[in-house]
Amino acid sequence: MNINLNIEKPIFIQIAEQLEDSIFTGVFPEKTKIPSTNEISALLNINPHTVLKGMNLLVDDEIIYKKRGLGMFVKEGAVEKIRQKRQGQFYNQFIASLIEEANKLHMTKEEIISLIERGYENERNSN
Amino acid sequence: MNAIQIKNVTKQYKDVTALDDVSFSFEYGKIYGFLGRNGAGKSTLINIIANRIFADNGEILIDGIPVKENMKIHEKVFCMSEVDLYDTSLKIKEHFKWINRFYDSFNIEKAFEIAEKFNLDTSKRYKALSKGYQSIFKLTVALALNVPYVIFDEPVLGLDANHRELFYDLLLKDYESNERTIILATHLIEEVANIIEEVVLIDKGKVMLQDNVGSLLEMGYSISGLAHEVDAYCVDKNVIGYDELGNLKIAYVLGEKAPLPKIGNLSLSAMNLQKLFVKLTEKGGN
Question: Which of A22, B63, B72, B101 is positioned for an S-S bond with A27, CB 3.0–4.6 A?
């Protein structure tokens, strides 16, 4: 979990995003317990109600679930679920803003496509 | 009703009105930030709640019980404050012993545990402690007292960064296992911004604002760009302050975020709690 919070987004949303990212990258594997609200609250100096609000977003998304008296656990299939969710968000999060910035800089579609190709090229060479 | 209810409280010091018909409540089970500039009336109100001074008008009820000259409320509310109300020649461990006799809800083992975490030498006399350790002693007492309402008036005064973190840590751990009302009166707004759930802001003896921190932060934002574009955007907005830097103008706005105009180069960013506080309390002079 990243512990640097910013002010551009509500804290509970940042908590949810960072937990989700940690689940996706395998820091908290499926079927295991994630840290409790008080552990996170004390580590980040955040009101426990805020932490719980963030966790509840992931409960609603069926990424984690509550085992009564034991804490929150990562659901089986959570990683795949997060992958699908993020793929769904890919256009809005990256492509739309990419085009907006490109337009501001008067860059053409062709230039952008060739930059993307160059990016993949660099990636191949470095591997 | 489980709350500290402040009803029409007025307090006058000669020609200064410290509190002017103040009414609001601190509800049970929440962490509050009680904010205000120097001289806003914070400490006056805290002292009235703690039964140390009396209001000229109005009353305070704790869980429905009137506070004024009522010994029963000592098991309800505890106030850690800046002023030294302790016998300065007494050793810390003796203080603990006496407090243990006065308060049923004092947990003396917990007090010694917390003291140890802060490396507070309990065999020292109060007056031999540094400013920081005097604060640590006072907040140790407050943390070890299991009363439903605890007020911390400038709890971290003189504490180094490590000890401040330790304090917030202990406070939150304690709150998790034992929910109660915690009221933090502090000038270090950013340090407590994520800890508190509700804000009460008083200014010039009046309550200026009471709101949930989350919704308050959602409401406040800044808009920056060329002066005329900023002014055009702000026409129908509740602007609480401006900053200017050459051609760049920054407006601080409270309210719903309206979409930015397509043309022009305005940019919108969030405002932190401290900025919001500063802008709100400098409106109208000072």
Answer: A22
Number of A/B CB contacts below 8 angstroms equals 48
For B55-94, how does the pLDDT look when each residue is reduced to its tens digit (9 = 90+)?
A: 999 999 999 999 888 888 888 999 998 777 788 889 999 9
To the nearest whole Å, the CA of B172 is away from the closest chain A CA by 6
How big is chain B by its Cα radius of gyration, in Å?
21
Decide if A7 and B168 are in contact by the 8 Å CB cutoff. no
Ramachandran bin of B264, using left for φ above 0, alpha for ψ from -120 to 50, beta for the remaining angles:
left
Measure CB to CB from residue B194 to each of A37, A42, A46 and give the nearest one. Answer: A46
What secondary structure letter does DSSP report for B125? B
* pLDDT in the model for residue B140: 95
Of A5, A11, A45, the CB nearest to B172: A45
- Report whether B118 contacts B79 (CB < 8 A): no
Query: Closest approach of chain A CAs to the CA of B100, in angstroms?
Result: 28
What CATH number does residue A44 fall under? 1.10.10.10
Domain ranges of chain B: 3-204, 216-282
CA of B210 vs chain A CAs: smallest distance (Å)? 18
How high is the pLDDT of residue B258? 80
Q: Is the pLDDT of residue B111 over 50?
A: yes
Structure tokens at A57: 């977003």
Q: In this complex, do B176 and A47 lie within 8 Å of one another by their Cβ atoms?
A: no
B33 to chain A: closest CA residue: A47
Contact A37 B271 (CB under 8 A): no
Q: Which residue from B285, B205, B279, B206 is spatially nearest to B39, judged by alpha carbons?
A: B205
Q: Quote the pTM value.
A: 0.86
Rounded Cα–Cα distance for residues B164 and B144 (Å): 17
Q: From CA B62, how far away is CA B5, in angstroms rounded?
A: 6
Burial A30-64 (b: 16+ CB within 10 A, else e): eeeebbbbbebbbebbbbbbbbbbbbebbeeeebb
Low-confidence ranges of chain A (pLDDT < 70): 1-4
Cβ atoms of A76 and A32 closer than 8 Å: no
Q: What is the CATH number of domain B216-282?
A: 3.30.70
